């Protein structure tokens, strides 16, 4: 499969703001045919698509309202009916709130798995698909451990395991689908603006001190990393982007 974004149809969950929006912008700059932005926020999604179309041209970005935990079938079917072939799926939607354990797993893990499997079936060359790429947004919390977010850790470790297993060379060779992971470090987004630890009363102050010592970056670093990973990575691999430094396989 060509590692070239030119003329690709790209679907991005959580695509209205932050990392998702930045990836859409970067992929359009690299020649993607269209980015389909899925998000639960109507206003932000509409504004995001409008902004990207103003920058890159009419119909280059499309917004579809979507709750990734509930709307897989109607939204994915609409996308496939409209564009016939989807080349890239980016599972970016997620939450960072350890006080909402079930919701964390539903969004960060189960929805990601369901969307991956739906488009894996659509893309697989052994069933008349054209191949493609699935990129899962994991996190440094998918391979490093601290004491503040055990449920978020669990969700991102799950993403890493799922990515490396589905992306195994055996599955790539029979399907023509790369499955890749991106592991951002601390990034300035809406997600990290107000994180909830599992025990804020005891951990809140300590966490505040902890985060100030971390290597922070802006979303543009993750957007660039998403291009680099698409262009260079082999299936089943995961890549760290931290402190705006070059990507490193993890």
TrEMBL record:
Family affiliation: Belongs to the short-chain dehydrogenases/reductases (SDR) family.
Signal peptide (UniProt feature, chain positions): none
Record's protein name: 15-hydroxyprostaglandin dehydrogenase [NAD(+)]-like
Pfam families xref list: adh_short (PF00106)
Family annotation (InterPro entries): NAD(P)-bd_dom_sf (IPR036291), SDR_fam (IPR002347)
Entry keyword set: Oxidoreductase
């Amino acid at each position: 499969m060509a590692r070239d974004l030119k003329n690709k149809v790209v679907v991005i969950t959580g695509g209205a703001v932050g990392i998702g929006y930045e990836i859409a912008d970067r992929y359009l700059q690299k020649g993607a045919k269209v980015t389909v932005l899925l998000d639960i926020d109507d206003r932000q999604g509409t504004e995001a698509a409008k902004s990207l179309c103003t920058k890159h041209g009419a119909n280059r970005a499309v917004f579809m309202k979507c709750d990734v935990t509930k709307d897989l079938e109607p939204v994915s079917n609409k996308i496939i009916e409209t564009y016939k072939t989807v080349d890239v799926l980016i599972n970016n939607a997620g939450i960072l709130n350890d006080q909402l354990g079930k919701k964390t797993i539903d969004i960060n893990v189960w929805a990601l798995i369901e969307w991956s499997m739906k488009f894996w079936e659509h893309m697989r060359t052994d069933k008349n698909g054209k191949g493609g790429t699935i990129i899962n947004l994991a996190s440094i919390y998918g391979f490093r451990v601290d004491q503040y977010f055990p449920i978020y850790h669990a969700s991102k470790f799950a993403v890493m395991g799922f990515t490396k297993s589905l992306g195994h060379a055996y599955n790539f060779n029979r399907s023509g689908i790369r499955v890749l992971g991106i592991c951002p470090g601390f990034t300035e987004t809406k997600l990290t603006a107000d994180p909830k630890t599992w025990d804020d009363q005891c951990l809140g102050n300590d966490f505040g001190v902890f985060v100030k010592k971390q290597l922070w970056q802006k979303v543009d670093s993750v957007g660039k990393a998403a291009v680099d990973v698409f262009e260079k990575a082999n299936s089943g691999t995961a890549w760290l982007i931290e402190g705006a430094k070059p990507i490193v396989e993890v």
